[in-house]
């Protein structure tokens, strides 16, 4: 089997060896097992269904959210001599009929579909032998994810329609809650799960206070005058304003946002890809499906809404594996604005909790990469040495006792309370919530009166960032312990904390650019 997989990889895709997890994922689906594959962008997810499609007897259905990307994928498969097609509403009924005919007699092995197409193709499915169903960008099914697409919720239909066919769910960006949600909603049966490392060691991480951002950016660019970079901004207007200011400083920059017409966008994109424009000032509309390997830096002019988005955006730097820089500006003003957006959204609570997590990352006093990776469920034992906190660490003290008190309080409160209540409990507050729940009668109530409310708050954030506890944002932001907490509670594991001498969130609201 191994030989056959390698031969197919070489022959049809021209690659010598598999990337991490690809072979395991392929073996899992070939064995007929439902499978969840979590890999960072650029990790090589496509091969995980394209290669099995060649080996399996029936056809492979690929669900993909973006019709625009389907055409590219199909074209590149055809270029490799693999028969593939897409079916969508832009085609005529006759065209579709011909494609379905070709799928029926297996002259085409792989078909890309948008989730919206399933219902009207239902009849056509009757006489197809389906060997594999791949669901790309599977996080779109979850309203807990950052990219919810209502049509994705129809996909559970597939498991009912083809109960014997294995489903492969693929995604790059999913926190733990979203991952569980994918499995439940797709009705996957005892799936094998594969999580590839999200660590991109070549990306440096840095957070700066948002003061004189334009000046800081110009200085940053002047140090590396020929390197390509992307500046992500919150609003369309600010992409244009920033591009304008950079141009006035003699820098080759252009704006990109969804408000520009199609021609203008694709021209800007092409100029950037061909190194004729050095810098793009963009909203998050920029980047999806763009494969430029030598982006040397990414700057976030504004705080992103959530860590998934942030991670995906910085991931556009350094795809060639060479050292690349990322800088995030954080300002109190952005936090307020994002909180307003989140409050107005349909699932305000999730959005706010995700924003909180983003804010905590920006406020971090321990290795930022550890925090990022722990968000994706990955623990690294060593600090990374390639983030600003590692390079310029704050002073730490032995905070083991503080950590023990905080974690015990979380246990006493049955992992059922949010951060603020835990702090009130530790400080022996006499407020209504405490008394209503009878918390004043529990052991460890008031064991931390000597530490201020503010300090407790920060220590708890540090404990979350260190991976000892986590915020269950789909459950009212309750603080839960991780498996790691046992080390502190029962094994006397030492915890280093730091006392911040400044407010941990950026101090001054700044006027918009
Ligand atoms: P993803 O969908 O995870 O973002 P892709 O499937 O588009 O990633 O793959 C990213 C790039 O890596 C593509 O250019 C692809 O051809 C390449 N790639 C995938 N698997 C391998 C491999 N085993 N060896 C070398 N290159 C690979
Ligand atoms: Zn670090």
UniProtKB/TrEMBL annotation:
Helicase ATP-binding domain mapped to chain residues: 26-192
Keywords: ATP-binding, DNA damage, DNA recombination, DNA repair, DNA-binding, Helicase, Hydrolase, Isomerase, Metal-binding, Nucleotide-binding, Zinc
Domain of life: Bacteria
Top EC class, one word: isomerase
The UniProt record lists the keyword Lipid biosynthesis: no
Cofactor(s), names only, from the UniProt record: Mg(2+); Zn(2+)
Cellular compartments per GO CC: bacterial nucleoid; cytoplasm; replisome
Domain (Helicase C-terminal): residue spans on this chain: 213-366
EC number of the protein: 5.6.2.4
GO molecular function terms listed in the Swiss-Prot or TrEMBL record: 3'-5' DNA helicase activity; ATP binding; DNA binding; four-way junction helicase activity; hydrolase activity; metal ion binding
Any one of the GO BP annotations: DNA replication
Catalytic activity, as annotated: Couples ATP hydrolysis with the unwinding of duplex DNA by translocating in the 3'-5' direction
Similarity remark: Belongs to the helicase family. RecQ subfamily.
Protein name in the entry: DNA helicase RecQ
The organism of origin for this protein: Flavobacterium kingsejongi
Residues of the full protein shown: 1 to 513 of 705
